[in-house]
Amino acid sequence: PPAATAEAELNSRMAALEAKFQVELDAKEKAIQEAYERGRSEARPAASTGEASAPADDGRTVKKCHEIAETFEEFRLILFYKLSPVVGEKATKTMLVKSFEKAREQHGDILKNANWDDKGNLLDDGGLNPKKIVENLSKLPPAEARAKMEEALKLVLHLRLSAVQKGLGNQLTLGLVRSMTGRLQELDGKHDAECVKALGKMIPAGAGA
How much is the pTM? Predict the structure, then answer.
């Protein structure tokens, strides 16, 4: 029957998207450790040249902040691959970008230029560059840097989930929250527990309720 055929095609498309999504997540996970060390080594020179110092003398805060910002990308990937089949890739990217821009209005000290890659290209998919975030953090008092970054990223996520809830309803929003929570459970034990805990606190408890 036509209905059964359509359902089968939809299931096939969703399975393909899920497979692509998992491949990208695995690639991100593999690159995280290299990114941590890169962020740490690139943020340290400022202290020795008399420029703005890194958030922590021993580099621990720099590494931790870079790790959290890098892993935060997992949430964006979930949103992108879950929403694109529903509203289209263009509309999904637009929402991701606009939510970042709105959060940047309140947290410009943290998110300034965070939507540009290392080659000077504007990220049009809502992605954030952890290196840029760490550079911004180096200008803040060490005691405040991490808390301010977590607050900024939390707002980005809340704005994105609020946009989904407003436009697509509670059920889909709750599904996204469950996917994010599930992903953190997968990362638990593979990544620093402190990082996973910080990201978990960013997920709004009442989203989709």
Answer: 0.73
